[in-house]
Specification:
Glutamine Phosphoribosylpyrophosphate, subunit 1, domain 1, 623 residues, alpha+beta, 17 strands, single chain, globular
């Protein structure tokens, strides 16, 4: 895992000081080594911060050159099948001086060109300068585990692993993008290629890009997408279920085995749930002594996973480490805001940071269970959507809306909200209700002081992200896979782990498992109206201890709603949001706090606004 930064300037006028200053802001991503390279003609400049994982020698350092210096690469991530690719390249006459996956990637590009992307099994973002073809080739992994920000202006392209490295140049304007802001307030994140700052972009997951040095022309294309949905959702008998269980067993076991490869110590993030417990089981059965790590919230039994994690640790004889967090300090929030390039509505960044901090004291690499919920139907709302679809699809939309409108005034306060409205107004044949909408359209339009947002933007983007499927479960899981997983979960994991110079890997996100889950697995083995993560639970029965509770759904999280009733968190949030410099309408802020006191769980909404305000203050962003 590393931090990358670079610039391409067709006018041969690279600001080398910006390169060095920007790279300093990425030091947490790569504390082991810093290197830079500039082309002789001053067209191209690359900088690299290295976190040494595979081939710890000088031979593995970057920027790395190949083919008589005609190819130069900077690379962030890991290629899990690099040994197979290396063997194939050796058969084709290639010779290698290092044992790194970086050299294999570079040789693979030399041999297959941009088609090398179809060979890769891993997480990555990289840039390859091809001197002979006079372009830079960029790519980001299929799921978006590794970040890639860029901006282009006047024939110059700048890119980096983190946005903060790009905006260190004071000449670069920091103006908020109103479309992205509306998406953040609605969805909790900024989706796709959009960026919270105007003039900046993200390279989307599964995409590649070329920048032609001489002309400044940019070409972007999608090299991978989810496969077609499973065509038949008929019921399956026990024998067929066993075949599916054996298949996911083989795929996950192989993925874990590949991702345990490293020249540094490797651990497991063990939350105590099904996903991380399966990974722990397979890692332990791989033959080596495994370290496992968890966080427990003392005094909040609902959020304390330590007994379940201990059960798995004892059963598989792991070396177990447990962090007891009495209460997360609110002082940690400004630190996390500085690290997160775009605000993110996910308070579980706190425990994710804390467990990353714990793991980094013992390991440089850790495996986690991310992705299993999206692939195998683990979230509660999947069962709720299936129930709602089965019940409401026969009732005309107009009738649903009229009934809700007439009954709304008689409903208990906590049910008079836009989520119920979205549910009853949804066309389940082609769309989805926005189950995770944080602020409704009217609130978003009027939430800022002195400005009015166009609240139709995020709704239109939401609809454009939905894929046409015959199954409501396929539609929901595909949306969460391409949006929530990529723009929330993986961002949270990357930023919090990298702040601790820790690489976190996700065995469930092996592309073979992804394609199996979406294209080969019937809905009945993913989620139903009464059960979730069906196939993984069948696998868990096969390899986890009998005492393990399969019905639980809990990851690393904090009791934010309780903390916001009184105390340090309440005081801090109130102070930030009611300050004279606050960008938010004071009436909206008061209403949110009043509702929270009345029992409406507004913790994540208030967290969203505090994050945004702190981020604007930190980076001096204007509107």
């Amino acid at each position: 895992m590393c931090g990358i930064l670079g610039v391409v300037n067709k006018n041969k006028n690279i600001d080398r000081e910006w390169v060095r200053q920007g790279a300093k802001l990425l030091s947490h991503r790569g504390p082991d080594q810093y290197s830079e390279w500039f082309s002789d003609d001053n067209y191209v400049g690359f900088a690299h911060r290295r976190l040494s994982i595979i081939d710890l020698s000088e031979l593995g350092k970057q920027p790395m050159k190949f083919d008589n210096d005609n190819l130069v690469i900077i690379f962030n991530g890991e290629i899990y099948n690099y040994l197979e690719i290396k063997a194939e390249l050796i058969e084709n006459g290639y010779r290698f001086s290092s044992t790194s996956d970086t050299e294999v990637l570079l040789a693979g590009y030399h041999h297959w060109g941009t088609d090398v992307l179809n060979k890769l099994n891993g997480m990555f973002s990289f840039a390859i300068y091809d001197k002979r073809k006079s372009y830079i080739f960029f790519a980001r992994d299929r799921v978006g585990e590794k970040p890639f920000f860029y901006c282009e202006q006047n024939g110059e392209l700048r890119f980096a692993s983190e946005l903060k490295a790009l905006i260190i140049d004071k000449a670069v304007p920091r103006i908020i993008d109103h479309q992205s802001l509306d998406c953040f307030l609605s969805m909790g994140f900024v989706p796709n290629n959009k960026c919270i700052l105007k003039g900046f972009n993200k390279l989307p997951a599964g995409h590649a890009m070329k920048f032609e040095v001489n002309s400044g022309r940019i070409t972007t294309w999608k090299y991978w997408d989810l496969p077609p949905e499973f065509e038949s959702n008929s019921n399956f008998n026990f024998y067929q279920e066993e075949k599916f269980v054996d298949k996911i067993d083989d795929l996950l076991r192989d993925s874990v085995k590949r991702q345990l490869i490293a020249d540094v110590p490797v651990g497991i993030l063990l939350s105590g749930g099904v996903d991380s417990s399966l990974i722990t089981a397979m890692a332990a059965q791989n033959g080596s002594q495994i370290k496992t790590f968890t966080v427990s919230m003392r005094g909040y039994n609902k959020y304390d996973e330590s007994p379940h994690a201990r059960l798995i640790s004892n059963h598989f004889n792991t070396e177990h480490f447990e962090l007891v967090a009495d209460k997360t300090s609110v002082d940690l929030l400004p630190i996390l805001i500085e690290q997160f390039d775009e605000p993110l509505v996910d308070s579980s960044m706190f425990p994710t940071y804390l467990v990353s901090q714990l793991v980094s004291q013992h390991c440089t690499v850790a495996l986690g269970g991310d992705g299993a919920d999206e692939l195998f139907g683990g979230y509660n709302h999947y069962s709720k959507l299936i129930k709602a679809h089965n019940l409401l699809r026969w009732i005309p939309l107009r009738l649903r809306r009229e009934v809700y409108s007439s009954l709304k005034g008689f409903l208990p306060f906590q049910y008079r909200n836009y989520k119920v409205d979205d549910l009853l107004s949804c066309d389940f044949t082609n769309s989805l209700p926005q189950v995770a909408k944080y602020f409704d359209n009217r609130t978003r339009e009027n939430i800022l002081v002195g400005q009015k947002l166009n609240s139709n933007i995020s709704d239109d983007i939401f609809e454009s992200m939905l894929k046409p499927t015959t199954s409501i479960l396929q539609r929901a899981t595909r949306f969460d896979f391409s949006s929530y997983l990529c723009e929330d979960i993986l961002v949270k994991v990357d930023r919090t782990s990298m702040l601790n110079s820790l690489e976190i890997r996700a065995p469930f996100l092996d592309f073979r498992i992804i394609e199996f889950a979406f294209s080969k697995l019937p809905d009945s083995l993913r989620a139903t109206s009464t059960n979730r993560k069906v196939l993984l639970k069948l696998l868990a029965k096969k390899i986890l201890p009998k005492e393990f509770n399969l019905s639980r759904k809990q990851g690393f999280s904090i009791p934010l709603d309780e903390w916001l009733k009184s105390g340090d968190f309440r005081d801090f949030f109130w102070t930030i949001l009611t300050d004279s410099n606050s960008m938010f309408n004071p009436h909206t802020i008061k209403r949110l706090f009043d509702e929270h006191d009345m029992g409406v769980k507004n913790g994540e909404r208030l967290f969203a606004l505090v994050q945004l305000q702190l981020w604007v203050n930190k980076y001096n962003v204007s509107f």
